[in-house]
Design a protein that fits this description.
About 30% of the residues lie in helices and about 20% in strands. The strands form 2 sheets. Strands 3-2-6-7-8-9-1-10 form an 8-stranded mixed β-sheet, sandwiched between helices. A 4-stranded antiparallel β-sheet has the order 5-4-12-11, with no helix packed on it. It starts with 15 loop residues before the first strand and ends with a helix.
Length: about 350
Amino acid sequence: MQNVRNVQEVIKVSDVFTVSKEFIPGFLEHLSKERTLIGPVDTGKVIEYREATATEILMDDCVSYNSIKAFFFPQTELMFTFENEEIEDNTSIPGYVIFGAKPCDLEALRIMSVVYTTGKYADPFFQRRFEKNFIIGVGCINEKPECFCGEIGVDKTFSDFCDIMLRDDGDNYSIMHMSEKGKDAFDSYMKQGDGSFASSSKPSSDSNNINRMKQRNRPPASLNKDDADYFDVIDWAKVTASCKGCGICTYICPTCYCFDFKDVSAKGKAERYKCWDSCMYPRFTLHASGHNPREKRHERYRQRVLHKYKYVPDNFEGCVACTGCGRCVRGCPVGINIKDIVKQITNSK
């Protein structure tokens, strides 16, 4: 199974349009005729991506509590049903228009796509959702508290891993199509005569920006020693002593993808679900024999760090499973900072 947007392809930006922010609600309503609209919404407690109307979606330089991960990898997903000795695959996959995806989340989606659409463990459910969804990215103006995307190598203003990319210019957006799907959707809307808030500009008018956009975000150097060299490189028990093992860091992380299966049966019909799980939970690695190779909390946190910065890069061509979004730092109830822990590892002798 091939990735929808090959990670090695060279992108071409043919046109840049300047659109008023007043243009966006109409464009989103146009797109949402065939898909459910998702975007950042202020719930009164946090900003989160959820189903919304075009007028409810925020268009400021906001930071969301959650990422767009759940619209490609749902927290609970029906895989198939068993009934009368027949297996029926779940092909009822919704499609979403996702507005406002930040570059860190788009780069996380690129990593998820590599993991779930290549190799022997390719996931057809992820692939189907990826193909159905329409993604509009929006670059950040400012780096948010606890973000460290720049240190990871992610450009906070741009990602090409979407259908349309917007750069926030205050009252306006610079809009670029990153896929044929994006170009067709934009052209279709403009042909309806609803493009009164848009004006085109030639690429040469912003040549430095376009040339920079053609340079892909490059992952930082991953941890490159043998696995065992990292087991005692720092005092893992000390740096994670305050960890509660709640697993919130894994649930709000845009690149965490651990899951397990749950079977439910009633009246001769059985259903199998794929459900989020967390490497921070004590039963995650519990064997049927009762043995647990990661019984202690600091062992589980060590696994989380090494998985992101060593095991994923080792197995998926250098992809580092962290994009510096800072959610795990902001969301941790005891303030554990993965960035500081990785720095301790890399600075240790």
